[in-house]
Amino acid sequence: MENVVFLVHNSRDHVGVATVDLEKGTTAQGKYLDVGATLTVEVSEGIPLGHKLSITRISGDQPVIEYGQEIGRAIHEIQPGNHVHTHNIKSMRW
Question: Please, which of 47, 57, 74, 88 could form a disulfide with 22 given CB 3.0 to 4.6 Å?
Fold first, then answer.
């Protein structure tokens, strides 16, 4: 049985959304909602429920993709398993 703890909306996305609080040092299983495939990521820092988790390396100033759309730009390099939030991305809205 799957123990999915984060969801990735689109297979183009760089991030998934935590469906539970994720603890640093754990292996988290996620699921792509568009294609149904699963993936695992080593969680490198605590990530609260509803927050984003990087599923791939994102270079500094690279667009961050969620829902298949650019939602912002990385302020600095973000590693897989990192918490993705206002401390490391600049929103497209402001």
Answer: 47
